[in-house]
Write a structure and sequence with these properties.
about 500 residues, six-stranded mixed sheet, 14 helices, about 25% strand
């Protein structure tokens, strides 16, 4: 059980929540929603007792379980001799049950494998299994569908729908759990409130849309009234008497009061846009891969994969987890070498790269230092770009390692704006983004004139980019894109 009474929280003079109250009772399945940076992960830290509220009271009763967006340093995982002892230390499940669960989440390893040797995405999946097998009184999940393909997402959401205790989920795929949600906690960054909505996520969206329409209507009416009074003020300028001066002062006071009282529109209603720079000139075939093969520990990942990317072309790279998509991308980038085959690059090729595991970042550097490493631009050119992604003033001196997954994604996309790339290679760019951020970034990418190779399991995102071709792995097939549900592709 969780009871919050008039809680407020702030850090570095930034108010995150103000006088917010809500409750969660045993058995509730709750969606925690809000834009990136609104304070969702911060609320989880407060619930776990890792931090304390600035004001008000926050009471949590029962054992808390938590799985973050990404597993960085987990001493229990790193010391575990094998996967089984890590995910099921109390031996609650039979071996075959554990293998089925691991297979459903695309964890391609044996139970006697040491979990510390696995990738960050695989580790996160194991931490998720460990938490749901333990069945704590309150289970907090921060983006449990990250690193999962479409089938994995469906499986985990179906599994969670039967969770016997209290469940609070942050997820951009919350619609998959929609029928089982009985409450929504929405963090509103405009008024700094944690708002409580009864019912499922779909009902919350309906109420939210209705409230936003009323807010926009109020805003438009107030703006109309301000315009009308400004016109009156111009007409009154000819009144030079003392009475006229008082009348003008009164009208100006009313205008100022209306301006101060104007409702602040949520970010999704403010039409925030950004434009990627025009690409540098390049040849007709900026990048070509011929007969690429790669294996790890005698396991063949890629076999004779060939792909030529034409200037300005968009290609979607699609296939289940483990099909070799990220490996192929890293070979194209020159980050790993193939066992056989070759990659040819145009001399004028300039690649902008986004990795969902943020392997290009030095987590000890600040946001500003990271940007300065990538491009040689003066501070007055860098600040406006970072501001578009909500990295304002003192925040540019924050270390990259302290950022949430969504904030790291926004920083990655901001870096794409600071140079004239002629090929973008994007590996799951929507993984950590809220729906609004996904739409904003999609609109920017839709107008991009350079070539693009991208991986995404977000069907709306793929449809929005309308790729020219789709490359299917592990079949090594290339097809022309026909807009439809991605699940219809044989991959």
């Amino acid at each position: 059980m969780i009871i919050a009474k008039n809680i407020s929280y702030s850090y570095s003079r930034l108010n995150v929540y103000e006088e917010s109250s809500f409750s969660v009772v045993k058995g509730n399945t709750v969606a925690l929603v809000g834009p990136n940076g609104a304070g969702k992960s911060t609320l989880f830290k407060l619930l776990m007792g890792e931090d304390t509220v600035s004001d008000g009271t926050l009471e949590v009763v029962g054992k808390i379980g938590y799985v973050p967006q990404e597993i960085k340093h987990d001493p229990i995982l790193e010391q575990a001799p094998d996967i089984r002892s890590y995910i099921d230390p109390e031996l609650k499940k039979e071996e075959y049950e554990l293998l089925i669960m691991m297979h459903s989440l695309e964890v391609n390893a044996e139970l006697d494998t040491a979990p510390r040797i696995l990738s960050g995405g695989q580790r996160t999946k194991l931490a998720l299994l460990r938490a749901i097998i333990a069945e704590p009184d309150v289970l907090l999940l921060d983006e449990p569908t990250n690193f999962l393909d479409t089938e994995g997402k469906r499986w985990i959401m179906e599994f969670l729908s039967e969770y016997p205790n209290t469940l609070i989920v942050i997820s951009h795929d919350i619609n998959l759990l929609d029928n089982h949600i009985d409450k929504v906690l929405a963090i509103n960054p405009t008024n700094k409130k944690i708002e409580e909505y009864k019912g499922n996520y779909s009902k919350y969206l309906q109420v939210k849309e209705s409230n936003e329409k009323m807010l926009v209507k109020q805003y438009e009416n107030d703006q109309h009234e301000i315009t009308r009074m400004k016109k009156s003020l111009l007409k009154m300028a000819r009144m030079s008497s003392e009475k006229g001066a008082r009348a003008r002062a009164n009208v100006q006071t009313r205008i100022d009061r209306l301006k101060d009282a104007l409702p602040e529109l949520p970010r999704e209603l403010a039409h925030i846009k950004f434009v990627l720079p025009d690409p540098l000139p390049t040849g007709e075939i900026p990048l070509s891969a011929q007969n690429i093969s790669k294996s790890y520990n005698d396991e063949l990942v890629l076999t004779d994969v060939s792909l030529s990317i034409r200037r300005g072309e968009r290609i979607a790279l699609y296939g289940p987890n483990g099909a070799g998509k990220s490996t192929f991308i890293k070979i194209l980038m020159g980050r790993i070498q193939p066992d056989s085959g070759e990659v040819e690059k145009d001399p004028n090729l300039h690649i902008g790269y986004y990795s969902q595991e943020f392997e290009t970042f030095d987590f000890d550097k600040t946001i500003l230092e990271t940007v300065e490493t990538v491009c040689s631009l003066p501070l007055d050119k860098i600040r406006p770009v970072l501001a578009k992604f909500n990295f304002l003033r003192h925040r540019i001196f924050q270390t990259v390692g302290s950022l949430s997954g969504g904030e790291k994604t926004r920083l990655s996309i901001a870096l794409l704006m600071l140079q004239n790339y002629n090929l973008l290679i994007l590996d799951e760019p929507t993984t950590y983004l809220d729906v609004t951020s996904q739409k904003i970034i999609l609109e920017a990418l839709k107008s991009y004139k350079g070539a693009m190779l991208f991986v995404s399991h977000t069907e709306e995102f793929v449809e929005g980019l309308t790729p020219n071709r789709i490359m299917l792995l592990p079949e090594n097939k290339i097809k022309y894109w026909i807009p439809k549900d991605l699940s219809n592709y044989d991959a």
